[in-house]
Amino acid sequence: MGKTILSCIDDVEGVSIAGGSEYAGHPAIGKDVGETAGIGTKGIAIVESIEGAIADCDVIIDFTTPESTINTLDAAVKHGKSLVIGTTGFSAEQKKSISHAAESIRCVFAPNMSIGVNVLFKVAGDVAKILGDAYDVEIVEAHHKFKKDAPSGTAVRLSEIIADSLERNIDEVGVYGRKGMTERTPKEIGVHTVRAGDIVGEHRVLFGGMGENLELFHRAQSRETFARGSIRAAQWLVNQSPGLYDMQDVLGLR
Length: 254
Prior knowledge:
Elements: H1 2-9, H2 33-37, H3 50-53, E1 59-62, H4 66-79, E2 82-85, H5 92-101, E3 106-109, H6 115-131, E4 136-143, H7 153-165, H8 170-173, E5 174-176, E6 189-195, E7 201-208, E8 213-220, H9 224-237, E9 243-245, H10 247-250
Parallel strand pairs: 1-2, 2-3, 3-9, 4-6, 5-6
Antiparallel strand pairs: 4-7, 7-8
């Protein structure tokens, strides 16, 4: 994702690269950020310390791990930098830390930066509200075999949005995979995970009724869609007041 963001930033007017960091011991440490991404020399070396990378930036874009993101969050608060978070897999406590930090800095926190997926969030909530309890809801997500968290942050957010629209508590009605004798209960929302090969990201929402099905489907064909969404979020964020936002705010879908 870092390389993809770098290559996309290179052709967006008004946006430039200010720095880059990697985890301790990574072979890219000390190398030029542009050369690493295949976009030519930028005269900016990749560093190990996040604080060394953000000195001259307006907005940090973070696609790493929950632990790394929290470290970046602390640095953003300390230095008054805005932050776009594309990382998923946070614990409830880590999410509280992000909310607390957003009281003093600008922050866009979203499980998926794709514009299409965020339209899916909006549509899925509206469809659930219209169809109501007469239709069963199943969510299926598929990603590459190296993805660490399951279900995906996007699938989790879809389940939350749909549950809210149906006035249900996802913690009470969410069912994650099935095995054995598992007759469906009336209000449950199924969430299922596939991990295989190099799948970039697929999300399907099935509303199953008696006599008909309605399906919503999104397929990401390249990581570029997430990169460009995060850059758009960064451009939007610099003109906002401190607070916690998501891509629905960025795209005006509220």
